[in-house]
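Worked example

This section walks through a single chain of length 380. The input is the sequence exactly as stored; nothing has been trimmed or padded.
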Amino acid sequence: MRFISDTSHIRVPCYRVLDDDGELVKPTNQVQVSKELAVRMHSEMVTLQTMDSIFYELQRQGRISFYLTTSGEEAVNIASAAALSSHDVILPQYREPGVLLWRGFTLQQFAHQCFGNTNDFGKGRQMPIHYGSNKHNYFTVSSPIATQLPQAVGAAYSLKMDGKSACAVTFCGDGSTSEGDFHAAMNFAAVMEAPVVFICRNNGWAISTPVEEQFRSDGIVVKGQAYGIWSIRVDGNDALAVYSAVHTAREIAIKEQRPVLIEALTYRVGHHSTSDDSTKYRSTGEIEYWKMERNPVNRFKRWVERNGWWSEKDELELRSSVRKQLMHAIQVAEKAQKPPLEDMFTDVYDKLSSNLEEQERDLRKTIEKHPKDYPSDVPL
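Given that input, the structure is written out below as tokens.
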């Protein structure tokens, strides 16, 4: 009689290409990255970093209602996006705006969404940062944790049935793996042999809950093995490692018609959102260490610079240019008109249902009775 032990004392290794100083780890077997691709990857990480900084301050100024940064997780965003095809379907969580940025969503479109004006694709009906774009094969972000995971498996199975040379890619945090939807999705994907790539950002914290209080297993990677899914653990702060892992996982998913799980070890430098103060549950020293010593943008920058592809002058010019573009986009978005009242009720059904018509009538009566309580910049 022999029971399988609860966990192995030998941890699953973490794949990396660059060390913390941006030097190549030898030997390695990474997917090669050209100068053009490397420069664009760094530029987009800087753009994402700058966008986060400015929009975060906007929320603190009371100009937008909510924001959530990707600080510390820029490599997972940009490097994974760079390794995918535009035909691949993305089902994000809420910390992957960099994937949409890579696919061509403009800074102006990001600003419109955060301000919820008439140019916002969601017509102001979503919280800020709940981006979505049919054009870019990027499903709209939803707040509930892990709901996108089984949906991604369904999308992947649809691609398989249609014989498409593409896969579904879905993102989640370590906290999502404590949800039932994660386990349903993993089993569904394995049994149906769906071409889906699960990318889990294990950033150490599910809001205020540390990973050691979430599970006793060796991280997330072993959960894929439990369901019969090929899995890999990768250094999520190493852009080259993330690019190589996602690029290879995509090939496996499409060519072999099977799911793949990637656990990207990273760290959430920012607060969970603007509704959170992370210094209440972790030390400022811990945050500063990851922000300065383990910064994924700086690590990749050092590698690009060593190759002679980037300079400090390029860096200054890029940051200045992005900042100017963002400030202009914010000015335009802030002045744009808000969506009309009727947009609260449309697009649910082809024809407005009787109960929604009743709700709209009741709302208009309430506004007539209490006009001062209704925002003056929203057209009636």
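What to look for: The mean pLDDT is 96.
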